[in-house]
Amino acid sequence: xxxxxxxxxxxxxxxxxxxxxxxxxxxxxxxxxxxxxxxxxxxxxxxxxxxxxxxxxxxxxxxxxxxxxxxxxxxxxxxxxxxxxxxxxxxxxxxxxxxxxxxxxxxxxxxxxxxxxxxxxxxxxxxxxxxxxxxxxxxxxxxxxxxxxxxxxxxxxxxxxxxxxxxxxxxxxxxxxxxxxxxxxxxxxxxxxxxxxxxxxxxxxxxxxxxxxxxxxxxxxxxxxxxxxxxxxxxxxxxxxxxxxxxxxxxxxxxxxxxxxxxxxxxxxxxxxxxxxxxxxxxxxxxxxxxxxxxxxxxxxxxxxxxxxxxxxxxxxxxxxxxxxxxxxxxxxxxxxxxxxxxxxxxxxxxxxxxxxxxxxxxxxxxxxxxxxxxxxxxxxxxxxxxxxxxxxxxxxxxxxxxxxxxxxxxxxxxxxxxxxxxxxxxxxxxxxxxxxxxxxxxxxxxxxxxxxxxxxxxxxxxxxxxxxxxxxxxxxxxxxxxxxxxxxxxxxxxxxxxxxxxxxxxxxxxxxxxxxxxxxxxxxxxxxxxxxxxxxxxxxxxxxxxxxxxxxxxxxxxxxxxxxxxxxxxxxxxxxxxxxxxxxxxxxxxxxxxxxxxxxxxxxxxxxxxxxxxxxxxxxxxxxxxxxxxxxxxxxxxxxxxxxxxxxxxxxxxxxxxxxxxxxxxxxxxxxxxxxxxxxxxxxxxxxxxxxxxxxxxxxxxxxxxxxxxxxxxxxxxxxxxxxxxxxxxxxxxxxxxxxxxxxxxxxxxxxxxxxxxxxxxxxxxxxxxxxxxxxxxxxxxxxxxxxxxxxxxxxxxxxxxxxxxxxxxxxxxxxxxxxxxxxxxxxxxxxxxxxxxxxx
DNA sequence: AGCACGCCGACT
DNA sequence: GTCGGCGTGCTC
Length: 842
What we know:
Layout: E1 2-8, E2 16-20, E3 40-45, E4 48-57, E5 68-69, E6 72-73, H1 83-94, H2 99-106, E7 115-121, H3 129-132, H4 138-146, H5 151-159, H6 161-173, E8 176-182, E9 191-197, H7 211-226, H8 232-247, E10 253-254, H9 255-261, H10 265-274, E11 278-284, H11 305-320, E12 324-330, H12 336-349, E13 353-357, H13 361-375, E14 379-382, H14 388-400, E15 405-408, E16 420-425, H15 443-454, E17 457-462, H16 467-474, E18 479-483, E19 494-499, H17 514-525, E20 529-533, E21 542-545, E22 562-564, E23 569-571, E24 578-580, E25 593-596, H18 600-610, E26 616-619, H19 627-638, E27 644-647, E28 660-665, H20 679-691, E29 702-707, H21 713-719, H22 723-733, E30 744-752, H23 755-772, E31 780-793, E32 796-805, H24 808-820, H25 822-825, E33 831-836
Parallel strand pairs: 2-5, 12-17, 12-18, 13-15, 13-16, 14-15, 16-17, 19-29, 20-27, 20-28, 26-27, 28-29
Antiparallel strand pairs: 1-2, 1-4, 3-4, 3-6, 7-8, 9-10, 9-11, 21-25, 22-23, 23-24, 30-32, 30-33, 31-32
Helix pairs in contact: 1-15, 7-8, 8-10, 11-12, 20-21, 21-22
The chain binds a DNA duplex through β1, β2 and β3.
């Protein structure tokens, strides 16, 4: 009797114990030694069946509960390697999320079936008068016509007050019945019918000039050897099969291809099967996600000195094995990709596999081209943009070891690679690495945890590392690698600041000051490309001093206040501090405080008016919704078919646009006004990243930055590319009031349809936390409750409580406390979500 | 999450 | 006096 530790796909914190009954064989193929760990099972839970993930075998039951039998073993081999189990447990514990849900989120969608109930009309009761006399409701007609209802329809019906009772009566009468069935996965391995020749056909001894001679040869041969009389169609089929077999790896001919060559094969195959000359088998096929040919990138003939220095540290670490975290700070254009490629090659030489995490699909596609150019077929792409079946295929390739390199967005951190030797995280500072719904994990942090657990090298890289990561490097937690120079000794672009506060003298007010306008015109005439960045973050309602450009800040929190017109208040979304909207500027005393913000399209329109002949394209959240269109725009830009690309942060990310020589930023300080303690850090990163788009080709780049606050350190330091000064300044500022890396944060989000319930719940949670930490000696602070910066989403009101603590233990204790007492703390139907290390403060 | 068990209002 | 509402609490 074997007991198993199983994580069920339900919100239960603990793992459960189930028995593997003797009648269920774990290994239907007869091999009794293969473990169940990492495989999926179907288990009874309460009154239904759900997917369970086997985490351990031969466990000891505590005897506290009755142990039920597994209903079914769903896989013949593991779907995730056992090395990931420790990561799943860590995540469950760290992010306070049920372990089964963690695994469900980690696996490709559609791999966690559950049982559903369908209402059926009992056949013998088809003519039941009581049933037939029911009103002509849709469900009754469907039942009569099809005999059964879909799971969704059944659920809806049983939830309705009007019909529940009637249905139950008919079930009692034996007219209707509820049938339990397991939802089909949706994602299945795609199988293909293949044929295999059972009799070896010798090549014709002499070169036979035409096909009909070959057919005759086959017929004579088989007649002589086996006494079989072949029809012409059979001989022809054999001939084409032989051709296909020679091309295939495993000596089989796919039915589809065979029929394309020779339609008569449909009949021929049937006859050949009867004669036992051909057998049929089903084979896995893999659907290629590569829509089109990838660009080829040749390997460089030599590396830069800095690349060599970095690799001289990374490669030995990979060869020796053991947990070694690196932070690679390499300016834009310094050739970080080549470092990833060389490091990957080193890991592959050790027989290890490699995981590459990027913040965004578009970047994955770009990196993929580099990796495929160097390593060919061993590379797979794993990201949410793939269809469920494509994702499943890529997953299987990684699991089976056929793919050695996985490139993907944050969820690829769960890639089922065995023998991992290296994890690379590109653009490690990017907020896109943080998942901001349901399980709120940070892909970069998980990369470090996975590397630590598996004792391998992790390489975090960025032109603008996050302040927290850089601080870790300064403290010695990470090994710091620096690349300060661009490949080919190209200089970083010259950055010019344009002060927006200086009044425009003449005529119509434009979003572009003369200097930028002139540069754009000249660049267009010279046939070169430009990029214009609009900092979308500046579009929320902030109040800015017209005289000095300073936004109104919170007294305690070092974040910008948000304008609430309805209440005429300026409100802090961290702690709830508020002032009347008519206030004075703290830095200059001016009363000239005005709300800011302008429309995105206006930038595009104005550019088009300015340069009617220019091909202008826009890249923002609106236009990026369609992934294909988004990638198409990037491709057009890369191919030089767009003159000016306008966009939000998206245009700034590590895209390689070789023809861009001019970059303009419409309003650089817009992002400084967002209510986020990292506003300055993010603004600096954005400007630096977009600046890096200029002058990557042969011509040196120019950058024009329009700003209300040229003297603000985030902007002035970006002008001089002074990353290290920015870090120093930020670290100084974050000591008081304390923010990461000096404290840890958790945001507790409360949302629900009733504003009152949400507010009351938030207050109770905050009060309970305050009471719980009264005695604590080490630093802990509870901020709020306060409405979330975006305080109403889809009919839901949102509030938040923020907890700052010096020790992670206190933070975790509070999280557990809130979760355990949720029932008492939360009123009505409010949802509570814990966000550890929050990235997006909105 | 589902689903069962369990305690208070509108009906026969 | 019953039926049935949906509030708490468990699921190996």
